[in-house]
Amino acid sequence: MTGAVTHTVSTAVICFELTGQISHILPMMVAVILANMVAQGLQPSLYDSIIQVKKLPYLPELALGHIR
């Protein structure tokens, strides 16, 4: 779950360091990568949806060609 929320692989590394079991690193990495793929498919994210529902101000996405 934390891998999907944070969109990082570091959560698997943190879990590996907490357990100290090298045999757990591969299943954790696979689970985090799959969670990231599922989270990427479910757009907009939960946080973006809450911002839109509450009509809070947020920065718009910029196109890469417009950055100077």
From TrEMBL:
A single Gene Ontology CC term: plasma membrane
- What is the top-level taxon of the source organism? Eukaryota
> Subcellular location, in the record's words?
Membrane
**Spans traversing the lipid bilayer:** none
Protein keywords:
CBS domain, Ion channel, Ion transport, Membrane, Repeat, Transmembrane, Transmembrane helix, Transport
- Membrane topology value: Multi-pass membrane protein
Molecular function terms, GO-annotated: voltage-gated chloride channel activity
Task: Name any one Pfam family assigned in the record.
Answer: Voltage_CLC
UniProt keyword annotation of Repeat present? yes
Phylogenetic classification of the source organism: Eukaryota, Metazoa, Chordata, Craniata, Vertebrata
This chain's protein is named Chloride channel protein
